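Thread: Newbie trying to understand structure tokens

Hi all, I'm a second-year student working on a class project, and my supervisor (Dr. K.) asked me to get a predicted structure for one chain before our next meeting. I've only ever worked with sequences, so writing a 3D structure as a token string is new to me. If someone could post the tokens and maybe explain what I'm looking at, I'd be very grateful. Here's the chain:
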Amino acid sequence: MTTATPAAATTSAGAAGQKCHFDNGVEHCGDDHDDEKPSAKPPASAAGQKCHFHAGVEHCGDDAESADEPRSCGRVDRDYRIGLRVGALFTILVTSSIGVFGPLLIRKLTKLSLEGLIFTMIKQFGTGVLIATAFVHLLTHAELMFNHECMGRLAYESTTTAICMAGVMLSFAIEYMASRLLLKKRQPQLDAPPSSASTDESTHVGKAADNEAVMPMPAPPPKFGQAALSLIVLESGIVFHSILIGLVLVVAGDSFFITLWVIIIFHQMFEGLALGSRIAALPRNEAGSLARWFMAGLFAIITPLGMAIGIGVLKRFNGQDRNTLIALGTLDALSAGILLWVALVDMLAGDWMHGDLRYAGAVKTGLATAALLAGLISMSVLANWA
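---
Reply by user tm_fold:
Sure, no problem. This is what the structure looks like when written as tokens:
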């Protein structure tokens, strides 16, 4: 009588020369040599290897590489066109500046209402861009890093989504604790006794009012409040992955560099527009002009800064090194979680469930929806090449 193999078994003998394991009831089989760690061969020449780039990370294999030979994960030596990369740095600086400073200049020069149709569409397009950036770009790229051939088998298969979840919870914890601190800071103002002027004025009400408690006027909102706090969390997530974007762009091989450069130009303009529209929408009592321009300027220079770092390490950077892949994957997944929290909770739910779009008319709702979808689709399309 044949005995069935228990479903809970984690390993089994497959075909000859294969090892099998079960994950969520699905059998995965591979040859014995699959468990071997990739070899860290010394730097090889690009000649004799087939290389391609995805998410700016190199995937290479020898032409003569056979199934029984572990793949090379050493750095591939190649001649980089440094002048082209320096020119790209300034191009990215200009396009990032146009995207992020554009909404600020539009509001300053035109005095458009933040609840008006144009600004609403700009903000919703930006919301769509950030949601797609988190899901389609960052989370996908992190998964690619952790599933790279040179990573080997991860002991914990849900590493990418676990780090993303940590980014979400970290953002929530920061906003929650900071909100409590802001509320505590305001409490003494709320509990303060009325000023002498208000007391003198109350004497004219009559003797009947003398027996009533005098309630103080509500304190003005703090100089740096909830909207500014959410924006700081948002920009921190953007800054993390913008540095990586600049680094990855520079170290990409010349065969892929031009394509990735063009895609990053559009990426930076769209993301700058998303961030700039939120900076422009900050209440005046939460952030002055200097703070606004500083936040916008930080975004404009952060990707070129990453590119400058990449140029500095160009001759030593190995995109196939396991530690490099872990660092890139971790930062991508963490940034994805931060952007997901801000884009879904503070921006999408904030505008549609608790903001002016909750009571908007049919025309405004329809155009805002179209702008939101346009942002989602535009950034998702760019993911086909980067």
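A couple of things are worth pointing out once you decode it. DSSP finds nine helices and seven strands in the chain. Residues 65 and 326 are 25 Å apart (CA to CA). Feel free to ask follow-ups in this thread.
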